Amino acid sequence: MPGPEPTLSILIIDENRLRAVVIEDGLRDAGYTNLTIVHDVVGIARRIADVSPDVIVIDLENPNRDVLESMFQLSRAVNRPIAMFVDRSDHSAIEAAVEAGVSAYVVDGLKRERVKPILDMAISRFNAFARMAHELEEARSQLESRKLVDRAKGIIMKTRGLTEAEAYALLRKTAMNQNRKISEIAEGLIMAAGLLAPPEDK
User: Fold this and answer.
1) I want to staple 162 with a disulfide (CB 3.0 to 4.6 A). Which of 24, 166, 190, 202 is the partner?
2) For residue 43, what is the DSSP state?
3) 89-121 pLDDT tens trace
4) How many CB atoms lie within 10 A of CB 54?
């Protein structure tokens, strides 16, 4: 089993210095050495931008609603794996953590020996979610491209009296000749047809 990456940059955010030591020791035990520890959350967004960590570990002990919400907003903005420890929580806070993209929200689980596996879980969940988001975006893009091509084929079939296959072949040939995507050709054709059509047909 491969060991941890010593170069992995990890930012620890914890106002409680004793609890921060628990996290730091757990990470150093696991072989991580590139650690930055922040005890003051004031201006934390700027500090994260400066450090640019690969992973963020946040310990909030017993946060109130305002602190939790500010940390959830931070989680939405940074787009990095985040493991968050709290001593107490409720169902709504857990749901909010998931919606905010917190990769691992751990209630009453801050122990030195648990830090490494929880960090691993946070990274794995973040990567899995990122893959899913990328695949979803690709699927949406392909669907939009298909819609454009279908509309363009309809315009060609109507204006030039071609079959669907012939209309697609014409789009494809034009795209190849211009070294562009078929969807780009289709979008241009649709736009041109819209400009040339009588007002009642738009």
Assistant:
1) 166
2) T
3) 888 888 888 888 889 989 887 899 999 999 999
4) 15
Query: Which residues contact residue 144 at a Cβ distance below 8 angstroms, ignoring those fewer than 6 apart?
Result: 183
89 or 137, which is more confident? 137
Residue range(s) occupied by CATH 3.40.50.2300 in the chain: 10-110
**Regarding the domain delimited by 10-110, which CATH topology (the fold level of the hierarchy) does it fall under?**
Rossmann fold (3.40.50)
Q: Cα separation of 162 and 164, whole Å?
A: 7
The closest alpha carbon to 89, from 72, 112, 114, belongs to 72
Helical H segments across 35-79, by residue range: 44-51, 65-78
